[in-house]
Amino acid sequence: MEKTFFKETCCQCVASDTETQNEVLEKRGKLKKRRKKNENKRVIKSNLSFGNPNWKENPNRYYDSNKIKTTKYSILTFVPKNIYEQLHRFANIYFVVIALLNFVPVVNAFQPEVSLIPICVIMAMTAIKDAWEDFRRYKLDKEINHMCCYIYSRKDHAYVEKCWKDVRVGDFVQLQCNETIPADILLLYSSDQNGICHLETANLDGETNLKQRRVVMGFSSQNTSFEPEFFQNTIICEMPNNDLNKFKGYMEQPNHERIGFNIENLLLRGCTIRNTEVAIGIVIYAGHETKAMLNNNGPRYKRSKIERRMNVDIFLCVGLLFTMCLVGSIGHGIWSGSFPEHPPYDVPDENGNFLSPVLSGFYMFLTMIILLQVLIPISLYVSIELVKLGQVFLIHNDIDLYDEEADLPIQCRALNITEDLGQIQYIFSDKTGTLTENKMVFRRCTVDGHEFSHQENAKRLETHKELDLEDEDFAKLQQFTLPQMNIERPATYQRTMRPLRRSQSARAHFQGHTRSRSLGRRDSNQSQVAFSSTIEKDVTPDSRLLRRVREAALRTENLSPFIHMKTATSFTDFFLALAICNTVVVSTTTEPRQRVTVPPPIKPSGITLEKIHQIFQRLKLVSLSQSFSSSQSSSDLGASFSAKNTEEHLATSRGAGLQDKSSTDFGSASLDEVFQSVTHGTLPTDFCYEAESPDEAALVYAAQAYSFTLVSRTPEQVTVRLPQGTLLTFDILYTLGFDSVRKRMSVVVRHPLTKEIIVYTKGADSVIMDLLEDPGKADTNAERRMKRIKDKTQKHLDYYARDGLRTLCIAKKVLSEDDFQKWANFRQEAEAAIDNRDELLMETAQHLETKLTLLGATGIEDRLQDGVPDTIAALREAGIQIWVLTGDKQETAVNIAYSCKLLDQRDTLLLSAACSSPKRNKILCKCLSLLMKLFGFIPTSLPASEIPGPEFGLVIDGRTLDIILQGGLEERFLELARLCRSVLCCRSTPLQKSIVVKLVRRQLKVMTLSIGDGANDVSMIQAADVGIGISGQEGMQAVMASDFAISRFKHLKKLLLVHGHWCYARLAKMVIYFFYKNVCYVNLLFWYQFFCGFSGNTMIDYWQMIFFNLFFTSLPPLVFGVLDRDVSAETLLSLPELYKNGQNSEIYKLSTFIITMLDAFYQSLVCFFVPYLAYKDSDIDVFSFGNPINTVSLLTIILHQALEMKTWVRVCVVIYLTFSLIYNAVCVACNPPTDPYWIMEKQLSEPAFYLVCLITPAIALLPRFEQSTFLSLHFKFSEEKSYFSSN
């Protein structure tokens, strides 16, 4: 049946039993209130067991339905709830109190109704914005709730289509391929014969690779379809939580037998079913209790540094307001007490009593608060929100921050901290996927102590850097062939002969990962295969290793008994481990994401194993009679070869493959004949590999390059095609997945030829090396051989790390049947355990992964992103300190730091290795004392940007960080780190990353930025003032936790140096300007009180005052805050030093605020007293006196903005004059007994009015003009000086 995304008609299919259940739940009210607080587990039973009569006995009735509601308001609650939320702002409370105070007759200064207009306008604008945002959430919720799925109905005895909102805990849901999961569902049936269901979690965490989920133990073996009506088990699991990686519980059968389950059995809401025709499960969590919804907290609210500074200045303005009101009240008391008799305007009360001077002064204090309330900028908060929306819009549409290859623009997830981008002092960066591509490319390997440099592959990768190769370069690349091997190359090898271009790389389409996308069905063809770009898939084999591998592959089947078997087994086992020690899902290029479970048929090759055996018998006689004049064994030859290779320090040339030719080229023509014969029987198609990590995919593609091709995989078997064309199908007995604690993974298989039980393990070298078998327990020859392999492999690993490669060790272990059965029983008991299950599983894994035999190691390159060195250099010039926090080993991190110019070759590295805490303290003290002697004492209060640049770099590991953080050495560590050029924290855990960021931010009181791309970077991103996520190949968890999301590290340069500078400069100047214009305007009313007996009267009409603050002077700051550019983008990028203005808060700080307030007082004095002196001896009325003051103050404030800001709006003057002319013409009796009728028209005809309007702004702005001229000349001089010094 065809399903659609949104189907209103599906609601009509709801059965009557569900309607009855919903009615009962609605009558009972909210479910959460009835749930017992002391419950720590959830009991779930099938809803099919409870009909309408006994529905009250169903324990599922207390759980949430699947209907979601993310809106904050309803039609009835919008007005009161929105008003309540807006009153959380101090400024809104202040203006509401002032407006209500104006209704008190004894203290009112204006018409009470008119005083409500400003606060009502501001709150109405905010309410409209909130209502629009909530309406959008309502529409999205409606679409999601009315999506359709199939629920089993007891009445119809079949699955019927229902809306998502009608799904309840305990319902049985049937899911089909490419369908999105409506709730958290426990998997009970899968159409896959092995009980496997594949998920794509891109809608949840952004990862495009497939995840495997298994049917609960005991349900996977059924051959018939699942019948929900026969399900009588009781499910007990943990309470809802937001941990996406953990889930545990058990299922109790009617016979009281318990079956445990975990996260591998849970299908999460929002994920998509892939490669599985049908899956059935029971709903465990629904609606807001699902893990996806519990993680959907939306963008976090952060208070920017300017906002924190602004709140302090608002309290300063409140103090200034109270001071002015106190002066007014005292002045009114003194004025009233100066009359010997009560003046005629002092009217007594109904009893004939007059107010005392003290009480009269108190009432005047309240009146002055109402009169001077505009001192607090009422429209500042709304203006800031509008400006930040405009800034976010411009940042989002910057073409330079758009990644064409990934089709991703920048995402601004936090709308309220854009200005913080211009004040960053410390950057904490991840390495893998942030500084590097996270495209793992197989570069080198060492097998059995022999290193293979893969020079041909290195040249191919170098060619990849040149995107526009000429034809002659392509011809040169085609000449990289295997020496003296005229055999037919596999398809993978042929593809590597083409130069790789940018257009060939796979694009990871992460755009649009919103809730609307995560909750609908999509076509499977839209999904992209993760970690499958051309540069990752194509590997050019090393010529020497290729021949050895092919020889070893033939000897695996006992076809060549005359050569040392251990060496042959090492090479074969090494590549078998690469091919099968993983969780890769195999699909074909013609049908991506359609899992291959049965090996495809191979065309007849025309050669049998007997034929190959006869050929090798002939080769044996020829080689014995012609080649071996000495009795040197192949193992000795391999040792001499390896020694020579090591002496060359892993820099062997292409010609190195020809050395020891006597041991590798015997019978080459006949061997080539063999492979020419078997390669005719090729597999009919190419394969795509769905890996959970890029490292895993790189190793599988490397094995494929050496013709160890992973053909198919099921939970029980894995098939590998050997170089000679033979298919080997291994029985998978157990798979121990990778985890961050063990730092390794293992697979237990049964070899199809030898029937041995083999454990293949791969993992971090720091772990595997400690798990190897003790050489002392072996015989003398084996002991020497094992020690030689371990020492040489460790030496190769050190070289790999110095080259910046990621290293993995490969090992094996052969188990006896008895040992395996004992361990398998132990493992089964751990899997069936209910309590301490995770600990027991960990114990069983550690028990198995011991006494390993080292096979070799791999070196994988994580290529540096384009533009990283230039970006880091520019950020360093801007005064930003950059720390790298990574989980990689020390040597790899240091090499990457040199490559990206984080460290210079002339820097002195301070390396900190693990030791005891007292010794650590001494080492830190010695390092600090040394730096103090070199640079002198530097106080801790000195800003980081002003610290002299030493040539030291600090490299510290995770164990050292633990000792520092737990031993009270934080201050000593920070003092040392502040004096270093760069800091690298290696082998650090996600928790350590977060702690380091918090430590620096709180102790040094600096602005911090964290940037990462993976789930392990989430805590670090959330701990910083600004968090930036990179939408790379490790999913979208970092993006979802970030404030801004970019696709490349190089975009950080323009984001900070240009947009950060602009946003800070714009907003800082706008806030200062708002304070300035309000203080300047309010002081005009304050000066007038000295001439009206501090009576609280005004010389300006109140409508003019309202529109002056709301419209006449508010538009220019808004336009400036969005569009102004004090310095061009080109200048900011060429002179990163200009970024330090924001770091030091030079535009908006306490000193600039005080200077601006003093300037506002001066300008208000000029704007008041120049018109006063001009009209001193005239007989004009009060509004005729106030109109010139109001006009010149407007001109002064607008011209002040023209001096300070590059973008300003002249139309404000026109709007003011137009409004004044119309208002004064129609206002005949607006404010009796005095009205502003025809005042503006009359004064526009007087020359004195124009003279006042010209002289007053010039006098008022003269100091500001001189200051602006001086700063402009100083800036140009500094710019030219920096330009010449840089060139």
Note the total helix count. 45
Shape: elongated
How would you classify the helix and strand content by structural class? alpha+beta
Helix content: 40-55%
Residue-averaged pLDDT: 75
Number of strands: 33
**N-to-C CA distance:** 71 Å
Low-confidence stretches: 1-38, 466-527, 558-565, 603-682, 937-950
Largest sheet: 9 strands, mixed
Query: What's the Cα radius of gyration?
Result: 39 Å
Q: Strand order, biggest sheet?
A: 14-33-32-31-15-27-30-29-28
Enzyme class: translocase
Active site: 430
EC number: 7.6.2.1
Catalytic activity: a beta-D-glucosyl-(1<->1')-N-acylsphing-4-enine(out) + ATP + H2O = a beta-D-glucosyl-(1<->1')-N-acylsphing-4-enine(in) + ADP + phosphate + H(+); ATP + H2O + phospholipidSide 1 = ADP + phosphate + phospholipidSide 2
How does this model look, in words?
The protein has 1287 residues and is an alpha+beta fold. It has 45 helices and 33 strands. A nine-stranded mixed sheet has the order 14-33-32-31-15-27-30-29-28, sandwiched between helices. A nine-stranded antiparallel sheet has the order 17-16-26-25-24-23-22-21-20, sandwiched between helices. The chain has a six-stranded antiparallel sheet with strand order 3-2-4-13-5-11, with no helix packed on it. Helix 36 runs antiparallel to helix 38 (1115-1123), helix 41 packs antiparallel against helix 42 (1182-1204) and helix 42 runs parallel beside helix 45. It is elongated. The two termini are 71 Å apart. The model is unreliable at 1-38, 466-527, 558-565, 603-682 and 937-950 (pLDDT under 50).
